[in-house]
Amino acid sequence: MSIVHTGSQRLLFRVIFYIVVIVIIYLVRGGLDWRQLLRRMPGYAATDTTLVITGGDLAPQLVQQLAAHYRRDYPQVNIQVQGGGSSHALEALINERADVAILNRRPTPEEQELFRSTHGDTLPWYPIALGGIVLLQSEQAGITALTLDDLRGFVATGQDPRLERLYVADPNLGLWDAFQAALADSPSVVQVFSEKPTHVVFLPDDPSVLAAVQADVRALGLISSLTAPDDLVAAGVRRVPLQVAAARPPVSGSDAEVAGGAYPLYHHILVACVAGGSLQGGKFVTHATSDRGQRQIARAGFVPSRLVLRQIYLTRHPVDR
Length: 321
Prior knowledge:
The protein has 321 residues and is an alpha/beta fold.
């Protein structure tokens, strides 16, 4: 009996050993996200002191300033800022490799459906800052101004006697979608080309766009004011003003023009976190959208999303009197 019992024990130990080996291989190969596992364990909230922010390439200075302010308010939190654009940030968020995503466009209906199927709800997002979508041309080019109709026509057809190409950074960064929505005068409308337009040239990043525009006098470039260099002249490019109304001078997308609504090409910087996700992600989003966070964005030299220049009306007959 003892021999049979010993043999059964050996068999049991062998089975347990094989199961442990299989589990280790599964974990090493990325079959399970440790962060996702830990979040489901009791007591995790009390030890959640890591905040991973992704999408930092969309507004590097703004994100770094926000992270610095948050670090001063919560010194016990280990903050990690990762690069990437909107698509990369959404991918990291949906796979729980990040707590907060920085975006410069809204999630698409398809992306929201993916969040619904994997997390049980759509992704909540909130605007925290505004950026201008700047049109650039070479210093050697001669366009004094474009109307919105000129711009819409060229983007849609590529037909304009003054232009041949439009340089844009990687569409996964999100600015291309934000630009199309701004042109359509609706944040929910994005032009979808049936085939890749030959006059639109996608480049890896913003420095590539600057270099291409500088060397091409028959091209426009597209860049966010949040990633544009302070000295465009040194880069050999200049802004292309927009003639929005015939009775008004052209506008070039200064912060005041963006905040006041005079410049129509703009995009929001959004923050997003998964509903019911990490504690630190929810806290950071709450902070960035709060009055304190919005003041920090303004003091850092950016346009907070809640800054709206209002018209003042003078009257001898106040309302309700």
